[in-house]
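Run: sequence + magnesium ion -> complex structure.
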Amino acid sequence: MKQILSADQIREGVRELAEKLSVAYGQRPVTIVAILTGSLVLLADLIRQLEMPLRVALIQASRYRTPDEPRADFVTTQASLPNLKDRDVLVIDDIFDTGHTLVEVLAQLLMHEPASLRSAVLMRKSDRSEVPIQPDYVMFEIPDEFVVGYGLDYEDRFRNLPYVAALEPEDLASE
Ligand code: IMP
Ligand code: MG
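>> structure
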C-alpha cells in the first residue's frame, strides 16, 4: 500500500481544523453530525480537540462502491438525530469524492431548519466533484485514487489503519 497521509499529518490536520472551528464558533454550542461509517475515527479525534459545548449525532449514508464500481444506489438512514432546529450544525465526512453524499445529507439536514449548516471533510479528491457545492473545511487534498484507513474501508476492511493509504491491486490479491 502506498501511504498518502501519515498519522502525524492527520494529527496536525485535526489540530488545525479544531483551531479553525474554535475561531468560527467560539463558545457557541455546536452539533456535530458525523456521516457513518467512514468518519468515526475523525469524529473521535476531532471532538477531543474541541472546547465549545458539543452534541454529537450520527447519520448513515452509504452507496455501495468498490474501486471498480464507484456509483450505485444512495442510501441514508437517520439513526437518531437530535432536534437540529436553530442549532449550529457541522457535518463531518471522511472524503469528498463526487460530492453527492454531502449534497444529499446537507439537503436532508436543511429540512430541520438549523441556525447554520457547515461541512468539514478529512480529504477531497481532486477533479472529481460532480456537484455545485464544496465543503466549508477541507483538511487534505489528495489525488484521485481509492484510499483506505483512518476510518475508510474497502469492503469493510482497513478502517483501523492509523494512516491513509492508496489501495493497489496487489493489496487485494494478498488476502
Ligand atoms: P461521494 O458521494 O462520491 O462524494 O462519496 C463520498 C463517500 O464515498 C465517502 O463518504 C466514502 O464513504 C466513499 N468513498 C469515496 N471515495 C472513497 C475512497 O477512495 N475510499 C473509501 N471510500 C470512499
Ligand atoms: Mg462515507
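>> summary
The chain has four helices and nine strands. Helices lie at 7-25, 40-47, 100-110, 169-173.
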